[in-house]
Design goal:
globular; 13 strands; Cyclophilin; 26% strand; alpha+beta
Length: 218
């Protein structure tokens, strides 16, 4: 059995559908996809001019890299200020840019000069683990100068799996939410490897999800 609508009713339904689209109200066919609750652990929330994304930090496996990154984000780790040329303690990742983008490979940040050549004032040792490979998109890793143990303050996030990078860069995290933001940044118009319009990293927030908090969301 079919039910025919009058032309007046069809116009009403059409207007309602148009209103929903304009107002951003999901229709019955557009059910909202809830975010997957975060499991217990340590996370970094990247606030950018293109939206936010969240990465789990592998603090149990890459302790040195995570401790350094968290310290720089919070301002408890000393780093070299390129203007004063003195070691300072303040959040390093506030209001800087993604200064380097390699299409379909990665986005890079962590240099307050935006040039990609800043000396952080320190280096950390590489932490390569057999189980941490560039076998998926969203890997958070330490940038270096092409030599062993030269990582410091710069980092990158991958856009896809890149097995050839295994044991060349230390992976210390994985994007668990907002990978579409990473891909949006990766596909911005470029001049060489630099976005034509600067993409800003506004802030990196660090949060810990406890076992009790995670249980409450399930």
């Amino acid at each position: 059995m079919t039910c025919k609508l009058s032309s007046a009713k069809r116009r009403v339904f059409s207007c309602l559908a148009t209103f929903c689209l304009i107002a951003g109200v999901p229709s019955l066919a557009q059910k909202a996809q809830p975010e997957k609750p975060l499991k217990p652990g340590l996370y970094a929330v990247f606030e950018t001019s293109e939206g936010n994304f969240t990465a789990e930090l592998f603090e149990r496996y890459t302790k040195v890299s995570v401790a350094s990154f968290v310290g720089l984000a919070k301002g408890t780790q000393s780093w070299l200020d390129p203007k004063s040329m003195k070691m300072v303690r303040r959040p390093m990742y506030d209001n800087i840019t993604f200064h380097r983008v390699v299409r379909h490979q990665m986005i890079q940040s962590g240099d307050p000069t935006g040039l990609g050549s800043h000396n952080c004032g320190f280096t950390i040792r590489d932490e390569y683990l057999p189980g941490l490979r560039f076998d998926r998109p969203g890997r958070l890793a330490m940038a270096n100068v092409g030599k062993e143990n030269t990582g410091g303050c710069q980092f990158f996030i991958t856009d896809q799996a890149i097995p050839s990078w295994d044991n060349k860069y230390a992976i210390f995290g994985q994007v668990v939410s907002g990978l579409d933001v990473v891909r949006t940044i990766n596909r911005k118009p470029l001049v060489g490897e630099k976005p034509v319009a600067p993409v800003t990293l506004k802030h990196v927030g660090i949060m810990r999800i406890s076992l009790n908090a995670a249980a409450a969301t399930n």
